[in-house]
Amino acid sequence: MSAQDAAAEIGYSTVENKYRIHGRVQGVGLRSMIKETAALVGLSGTVRNSPDGTVELIVRGPESVVDDFILWLDRNPGHSRVDKIEHVAWALPALSPAPQGAPEPFQIVYSNGPAVDTLVAGMYLVRSLIGL
Hints:
Structural class: alpha+beta
Strand content: 25-35%
Number of helices: 4
Distance between the termini: 48 Å
CATH topology: Alpha-Beta Plaits
Strand order of the largest sheet: 4-1-3-2-5
């Protein structure tokens, strides 16, 4: 039984929220940590680097689990430095029903392919380390 199914059985609601994570968050392994930890606690969604140096996170699961996940993320996991987690208002696509059964696996989305994303993230890391 997935975390989402268990939550539904005891009356907890499933949410799908979008966040923008600010700070030293690219080039430090944060997306991989997010993916692994989300899968561990039964959340689904996507994470991607944004061109502005932030990380965009869409996460779906029981509200209390999502809230705890965001609290974990705010504690600067790994080598990241999370300055701010912005909850972004957004509308769910009209043809996107809540999944039944096991959640889809959490995914890292590569906007320009893994090599380009890694290069861009590395540039942001170097800039943040030298104070630009």
